[in-house]
Amino acid sequence: MITRLTSLSKNIVQFCRFLRQKGFTVTVEEEATALQALQHIDYGNNQVFFLALQAVFCRSKTQLDEFKNLFNEYWKRLDSAADAKLKNEETKQPPIAQPQLKSLKAWLYGNKNKETEETASYSVNENLSQKDFSAVPEDEVDELMQTVKSIAKRLAAKTNRRYESSHKIDLPDLRKTLRKNLRRGGELLDIIHRRPKRNRVKLVLLCDVSRSMELYSAFFIQFMYAFQQVFRRMETFVFSTSLKRITFLLKQKNFDEAIRLLTSENSGWSGGTRIGEALNVFTNDYGKKMLGSKTIVIIVSDGWDTGNIDLIKKSMEFIYAKSKKVIWLNPLAGFEDYKPDVSGMKAAMPFIDVFAPVHNAESLKRLEKWL
Predict the structure, then answer these.
(1) Are 281 and 258 in contact (CB under 8 A)?
(2) CATH superfamily of the domain spanning 202-370
(3) Which of 177, 285, 328, 344 could cross-link to 305 by cystine, CB 3.0-4.6 Å?
(4) pTM value?
């Protein structure tokens, strides 16, 4: 792939993918920050360019120690690839490709070109996070899985962090302190403190893994797995023709092992969909124990059902009455013309607090405002 990239901005995006393959957690926001930084630094200076990317992508001492070698490895490989490609293109003498490659080689050797103009025209929105899960090319699946994992862990950490005012000397609350002292001309006479607030919210997540969800379910399982590694007050289930509790399976240290156990133990994976029967089993076997005024229930499904529709209504009514909030995430809702008019969705809609799309990595981030 490196041989096909002939611009600095595109190679920075490719470098982000390279870092993710090496275990770095590089999000879309950091890609955007790195691209925007090109307009404010002398990127013709290799040391300045290196330090700028290091500041954006490194979060720990371990990453700082590894970054220099990874940086040199990627850009030296790019240099070799561009050099070989340039020689090949010069032999063929194409009218367009050759100047682009020379421009890239010029930059690699420390000579500035017009990359700032190109960076300005490069759209950060044209990235993997905006792609529908069902349309992701096979060679980009691993990268997107890492993105989903990163989003889940950040979201889980934010859900864990809650604070309340405290009279004890603990953590200073800078915002409230500044606000209270504004009337005194900004002089800090009173210090407001805060302390971690015990977050009693519990999550129950039920994910549809039927055939109609086949192109989406693997990403959702990754999300559930990563989220549960950080947020322990969570119960997870999958369903198709039947319901299976998988909380203990997702506690495996290795995600691939968790998936292997999950698929081997769940004979209904990628089968038909009986949402009503699955939800009915949940309410009968787990509802009284797991649901309560502090419980948020998240159901991930496209709403297609081949079973008893009345059971969907009955079960959803029970879940809605016993829970703090019910969130239904539907991957089909990401399409502009989608309407929830299948019988399963119609039966569930009166008992849903939040109905939202979950068709790409970007849509997973929006969960924060509902949790």
Answers:
(1) no
(2) von Willebrand factor, type A domain (3.40.50.410)
(3) 344
(4) 0.60
